[in-house]
Amino acid sequence: MFTDFITILDLVGVAVFAATGGLVASRKEMDLIGFGMMATFTGVGGGTVRDVILDRPVFWVEDHRYLLVCLGIALLLYFFASHVQRRYVVLLWSDAIGLAAFAVLGAQLAREADAGPLIAIVLGMITATFGGLARDLVAGETPLLLKQEIYATAALVSAAVYVVFVDSIGVAPLIAAIGAILTGFAVRAGAILFGWSLPRYKQRAGRIYK
């Protein structure tokens, strides 16, 4: 049952992230190829980096369904994105859902590859954030990852909660995954709604050595 949940979560996460890529492409008035590229970069980018680091087969090369999902979402949004009002708001919330889900997915796959708890958490964050980073860089926008409000931290929290629940507390993986996704999404939602952010470094004059 948990394996089926992870597979569904993976496909849904790819679809959600691909949709955010398609929405950015629509805001940038790209052609159909641009939609496909943006959806694919966003949908599979983070997972590709994760798999390369873990030295495991890249998931979308092994299973073509992921590419079909990305391209299908791109085609759908090419024709219907104009019907989505306030696309940036939809982008933010869709990205928040994908962020929390992919963080858990990345952490779980890292655990299956016998990665330690810390590495699993970091790879969960990478899985959740690198697709959006690629999307924003290609589109010439400031990546959400680099904005002041909490973003990568939400992914880190989601992955950490999952790993702690499963490895330290012994919570069933399915329950741990649902709890971790809800926690990470709540953190990101707080950042969107209330502007939550971590303290930032403030530039100070350097020390003068004599």
From TrEMBL:
Q: Looking at the record's lineage, which domain of life comes first?
A: Bacteria
Has keyword Cell membrane? yes
Q: Name where it's found.
A: Cell membrane
InterPro entries per the UniProt record, alphabetical: Gly_transporter
Span-the-membrane segments of this chain are 6-25, 32-53, 65-81, 88-109, 115-138, 150-169, 175-198
Q: How does it sit in the membrane?
A: Multi-pass membrane protein
Keywords in UniProt for this one? Cell membrane, Membrane, Transmembrane, Transmembrane helix
Give all residue intervals belonging to the Glycine transporter domain: 8-81, 93-165
Asked if Iron-sulfur is a keyword of the record, the answer is no
| Name of a matching Pfam family | Gly_transporter
Q: What is its main location?
A: membrane
State the similarity comment. Answer: Belongs to the UPF0126 family.
Q: What is this protein called?
A: Trimeric intracellular cation channel family protein
